[in-house]
Amino acid sequence: MTLRAAVDSPATGRPRTPYRRRLLGRRLPVLLGAALVLALLGPFGTFADLTLAQRLAYWIGLIGLGGLAFELLTLAAARRLRDRPEAWRALLAGVTLAVAAPMTMAVALLERSLRGKDMLHPLGLAELFVYVVLITLLVSAIPVWLELRDRGLLAGPTPPPAPDNAPVPPAERPEPAFLARLPARLGRDLLALEMEDHYVRAHTAEGSDLILMRLRDAIAELAGLDGMQVHRSHWVAAAAVAGVERKPDGKLVLVLRNGRRVPVSRSHAAAVREAGWTEKTGP
Known about the structure:
single chain, 283 residues, 8 strands, rod-shaped, disordered N terminus, LytTR family transcriptional regulator
């Protein structure tokens, strides 16, 4: 007895778990378990008037019918959660009452035919309606709670505040300002920067282009992107380094993913080694 949306997506108000897994893993086990418990306990006089087999048929039939009605109604109503997730309380209340009304009549007819009890009068129907609503709430409580949590409609525990020096997850880091300067045809996979007179040549996996600005200003706009200046005229992204070559005079040359080679000045060689780039074996 839970909700099913037409589109399963992780947005608020939409389920994260596929419908079949929610049905088989949550709804059906709870419905079956509730029917078995009610058959064993025999509430509302069913224990004294019916055999165990009759009680099983009685409660499995009623719980199954109520669960089917609940499912069909929520399937039709849950589309509203995509646009108004805050309306889930009213939706659940409406569905519960809408299911309880026909189920009350079904129970009244079953009681008259099976146990000879005439509940088809205002007072009897009112009494049955209260019982039906109560059982519906008890049976659906756990699956509905799981469903609401799956849809992100229940607030979880507030995480402790992160320390000021805690690393920011990559998904939450803003894009470096420099990347907005790149032409769309070059994409955002920045490999290296190279100073050319008053320009900076930006090298990406898709090609290169000149941008009118100083190299130091471009590097400042790359704050947050893993990389470093390796020469007075070159900056390299860490993810771009495929390997390192050593010249006979001991100087280092970085080999990038696109095959480009970038010299490392002696003043930056220690930082390159500290970053572990010299451990890369080559393209």
